[in-house]
Specification:
The protein has 6 helices and 10 strands. By secondary structure, it is of the alpha/beta class. The strands form 2 sheets. An 8-stranded mixed β-sheet has the order 3-4-2-5-6-7-8-10, sandwiched between helices. Strands 1-9 form a two-stranded antiparallel ribbon. It is globular, with a radius of gyration of 15 Å. The N terminus is likely disordered.
Length: 176
């Protein structure tokens, strides 16, 4: 029953209902990726946030249209906390993030970003080619015109993060 609900939820990610007021300017692929960013944390166990963190802060670094899409979801409850969106410019600014989306344009900073994120228990997600194989936790990829994901359990474990068994079953690939 739970698996059926999870499949329905993830399939609903493919519907273009997320509104950002700029649908004509943003590729459909990024609307779907934004839905993944909003829903994947629901199936992931993460370290408890600091007492100072009243929000679930999603940080973005690099060139991506996701910020413009996610801004319309600001305040939505993620893990019982309102979603906050924050743009960062360098690895030293990840403090206070619970999730970090790393754009492909940040490949040159990848190892520094991953080291900081793992050290601080931050969930890392990217659509960068081979992201999960390079040490990231969740790699969003397009296969047969569908957005899907790879998971890296080892990278997540370094940050005290674990994926639900249902999420592991739905992954395109799981790296141990």
């Amino acid at each position: 029953m739970v698996l059926r609900w999870l499949v329905i939820l993830l399939l609903s990610l493919l519907s273009p209902t997320l509104s950002c007021g700029q649908e004509d300017e943003v590729p459909q692929e990024y609307l779907v990726k934004a839905k993944y960013l909003l829903n994947l944390p629901l199936f992931i166990e993460m370290p408890s946030p600091s007492k100072n963190s009243a929000s679930f802060t999603t940080c973005l670094i690099g060139d991506t249209p996701l910020e413009n899409i996610l801004v319309s979801s600001r305040g939505k409850l993620i893990k019982n906390r309102p979603l906050a969106i924050r743009r960062i410019e360098d690895p030293g600014q990840v403090d206070g993030c619970q999730m970090l989306f790393i754009a492909s344009s940040e490949r040159h900073n990848l190892q520094k970003l991953l080291t900081e994120a793992h050290r601080r228990g931050i969930l890392t997600i990217s659509d960068m080619r081979n992201f999960a194989r390079l040490g990231g936790m969740i790699s969003l990829l397009t296969v047969d015109n569908r957005v899907t994901f790879d998971l890296n359990r080892s990278a997540a474990g370094k940050a005290s993060i674990s994926f639900s068994s249902h999420l592991l079953k739905l992954a395109h690939d799981v790296i141990n």
